[in-house]
Amino acid sequence: MMSTSLLLLSFLLAVTAAQGASGFRICAFNLHHFGASKASKNDVMITLARIISRCDVCLLQEVRDSKGTALPKLLETIKRYDKQNKYEALASERLGRTESYQEQYVFIYRSNTVKVTDQFQYPDNLPGDEDAFSREPFVVRFSAPRTSIKDFVLIPQHTTPTNTTKELDALYDVLQQVRKMWKNENVMLLGDFNADCGYLAKKNRKHVRLITDSSLHWLIPENTDTTVKLTTSCSYDRIVVHGERFYRAVVPSSAQPFNFQQEYRLTEEQALDVSDHYPVEVLLEVVSSRAFNGVISFTSSFAVFQCLSCIIYHLILL
Ligand SMILES: *[C@@H]1O[C@H](CO)[C@@H](O)[C@H](O)[C@H]1NC(C)=O
């Protein structure tokens, strides 16, 4: 009896330790023309739900849901797929220079691990550099008590390929404004930056403050392939962290693309039906999970119970 309980206890401890080690996952995923057409394909929606439900916070890009039905359907699919967590979505307005081509940034997050505490649509009216972006960042501040950093800001960006150098440099101005506005140094910039191959020439990098400023850490290594097509290999999708404190709150070497084609054994064609990009992701250190605290209190009440029973036992014997 006793040894069974002990076994159970050590099993529980092992399980929660493993869960704790998995960290708090932040992802960025370019969904490549996500709208009614993709939403009508059941297998695509299930794969999207599998991918997105791995993340505590997932930034979606290229959401082109003109009828406004695809996103609610995706959220429903995710909720049905993962009933262990609660999910909510926060979407920007439709952004773009022309009426005919607009995209939304969408954050899907687990409301049981993270809360939205503020949001800010960048107005893109910096004197002398008005309208720098096609898709102005929709900046969101989060509170995640389980993480060691607790409170952080995400700045999303899907650059226009032909204007990559300019837009990446302008992101630096957004960063400064957000730091000042919210008095918060814990800022992450993420998304499909098109920061590679033909779109970001090596010789132009020295003009991009987001690259040259040493307070910024580019977490996805230079030669990483974030594209699905076998014939392309480019590090388009990136995660950049501002400040030493935030950098230290990241699980070392955890930033990587998630190769869902390999992971879910899809053909290239099946994977491309989902997106032409892999998501990129990073883990934040967690302090202690609620499950772990649960085991601690279980352990201590178990100990108290044992102690009581042995006292009673001795009292009876005496
Ligand atoms: C590139 O940026 C300039 C100015 O910031 C803008 O006028 C132009 O339309 C942009 N190009 C595209 C393809 O969006």
TrEMBL record:
Residues 28-277 form the Endonuclease/exonuclease/phosphatase domain. GO terms for biological process: DNA catabolic process. The active site is at 103, 158. The chain crosses the membrane at residues 295-316. Its main location: endoplasmic reticulum. Coiled coil: none annotated. Residues 1-20 form the signal peptide. It is found in: Endoplasmic reticulum. InterPro entries: Deoxyribonuclease-1_AS, DNase_I, Endo/exonu/phosph_ase_sf, Endo/exonuclease/phosphatase. GO terms for cellular component: endoplasmic reticulum; nucleus. Keywords: Disulfide bond, Endonuclease, Endoplasmic reticulum, Glycoprotein, Hydrolase, Membrane, Nuclease, Signal, Transmembrane, Transmembrane helix. GO terms for molecular function: deoxyribonuclease I activity; DNA binding. Disulfide bonds join 197-234. It comes from the Eukaryota. Belongs to the DNase I family. This is Deoxyribonuclease-1-like 1. It comes from Fundulus heteroclitus. The lineage of its organism: Eukaryota, Metazoa, Chordata, Craniata, Vertebrata.
